[in-house]
């Protein structure tokens, strides 16, 4: 049991998961410190989707008015050949807003801003610090003593690690990454680029070549778009935290590719929000170790290919904050209930639709041609009912508790 019914909580990471849980804790009057390693809110990221229970959680937490102002109005996805000829289309309505193109899409950076704006409106006990991170952490039965890079040492009743796929807090408390991280056979890059003149309004348009795909996705501002590059590539430590090496690998793999590849590569060189990361699945069987609990990508991730990273972060944050607020004097109980409630959602949300990167990005010209035929068939009228089943979100039946 906790010794206090007014706990002091540390949230590590000011991304979607960290900011959502901080917002809800503050609204419950719980003293919350957030430390974000970056020195300002991190921009960037393409449109992320809110599906099934995450839509409901966002509505209950009052996020929808802010999202409504900043959301991207995407009509659907179109697939083109290297000559720019469209061979398949997925309209948002074809899957009732729950397919590959979701009904609610908002750029990751914009969603984070919606959360930060709501946090600023709460007159609660908040200490929000940029440019800081944990250097050292020790635990006993009732809390954790944390030393920050800034030199401060403080004690918290609970530490919520929401510091993303490469969570340093997870490494510090739960052990080395190898136990929890599975490389899914590829990498993805996102960055902002000027919208090419002949772009079809509101449509994400993509082209696949052997072992890679490149796409242009609408932004909120019609003058700009998001470039999305997916590479089929084994894990390569040389690509970690080295944008020059990452961009060189992309250039190598898209060299000579048709359609808009040259425009995308030109824009990449000058982009100021280039984001590149491995496609990784994160599985941590027990989300809590003593008084440290994992939230969002730090504890569970199916990679951007799952389209559910943000949904898991929002549902997880809603549940964790809800359980803490329900029993602020029993944080052990709240952590256990969070694990129990979130697990059925995660098990379904982490599944990759359509067979993962091997199906998505064949390595040969013949395989890529077959994948095109496959997409054309799957989006045809006759096959649509079956395709809908294949892409139906496994989380559709999940019932979100009410707090
Ligand atoms: C810049 C950026 C762009 C992204 N773009 C996309 C995208 O286009 N499509 C997609 O599907 N997913 C994207 N993601 C991942 C997506 O945001 C997450 O899958 C999902 O929203 C869950 O969020 P999270 O808060 O768990 O993790 P994240 O969004 O990764 O947030 C983690 C936060 O913790 C901070 N942090 C990291 N280490 C530390 C530390 N040691 N101490 C303190 N803070 C730390 C990071 O700076 C970051 O702000 C992106 C993530 C980032 C950071």
TrEMBL record:
Q: Which residues cross the membrane?
A: none
The answer to whether UniProt assigns keyword Isomerase to this entry is no
Q: Which InterPro entries match?
A: FAD-bd, FAD/NAD-bd_sf, FAD_aromatic-hydroxylase
Q: Which Pfam families match?
A: FAD_binding_3 (PF01494)
Highest taxon of the source?
Answer: Bacteria
Instruction: List UniProt keywords, sorted A-Z.
Output: Monooxygenase, Oxidoreductase
* Gene Ontology molecular function, alphabetical: monooxygenase activity
Identify the residues that the record assigns to the FAD-binding domain, covering every copy.
Answer: 8-326
UniProt protein name: FAD-dependent monooxygenase
Supply the source organism for this entry: Nocardia tengchongensis
């Amino acid at each position: 049991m906790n010794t206090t019914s007014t706990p002091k909580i540390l949230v590590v990471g000011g991304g979607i998961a960290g900011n959502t849980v901080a917002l809800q804790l503050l609204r419950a009057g719980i003293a919350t410190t957030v430390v974000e390693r970056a020195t300002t809110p991190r921009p960037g990221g393409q449109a992320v989707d809110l599906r099934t229970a995450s839509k409901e959680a966002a509505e209950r937490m009052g996020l929808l008015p802010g999202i409504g102002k900043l959301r991207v109005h995407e009509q659907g996805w179109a697939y083109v050949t290297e000559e720019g000829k469209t061979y398949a289309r997925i309209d948002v309505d074809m899957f009732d807003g729950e397919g590959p193109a979701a009904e609610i899409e908002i750029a990751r950076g914009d969603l984070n801003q919606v959360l930060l704006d709501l946090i600023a409106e709460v007159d609660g006990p908040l200490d929000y610090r940029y440019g800081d991170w944990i250097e050292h952490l020790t635990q006993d039965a009732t809390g954790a003593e944390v030393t920050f890079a800034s030199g401060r040492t403080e004690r918290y009743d609970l530490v919520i690690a929401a510091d993303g796929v490469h969570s340093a807090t997870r490494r510090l408390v739960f052990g080395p990454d190898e136990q929890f991280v599975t490389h899914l056979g590829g990498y993805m890059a996102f960055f902002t680029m000027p919208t090419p003149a002949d772009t079809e309004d509101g449509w994400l348009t993509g082209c696949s070549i052997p072992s890679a795909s490149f796409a242009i996705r609408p932004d909120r501002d019609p003058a700009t778009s998001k470039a999305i590059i997916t590479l089929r590539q084994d894990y390569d430590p040389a690509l970690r935290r080295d944008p020059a090496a990452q961009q060189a690998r992309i250039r190598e793999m898209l060299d000579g590719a048709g359609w808009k590849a040259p425009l995308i590569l030109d824009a990449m060189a000058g982009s100021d929000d280039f984001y590149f990361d491995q496609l990784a699945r994160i599985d941590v069987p027990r989300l809590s170790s003593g008084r440290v609990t994992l939230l969002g990508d730090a504890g569970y991730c199916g990679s951007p290919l799952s389209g559910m990273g943000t949904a898991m972060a929002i549902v997880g944050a809603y549940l964790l904050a809800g359980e803490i607020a329900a029993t602020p004097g029993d944080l052990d109980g709240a952590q256990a209930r969070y694990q129990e409630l979130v697990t059925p959602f995660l098990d379904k949300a982490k599944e990759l639709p359509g067979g993962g990167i091997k199906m998505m990005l064949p390595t040969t010209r013949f395989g890529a041609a077959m994948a095109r035929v496959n997409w054309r068939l799957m989006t045809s009228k006759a096959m649509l009912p079956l395709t809908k089943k294949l892409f139906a979100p496994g989380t559709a039946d999940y019932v979100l508790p009410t707090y």
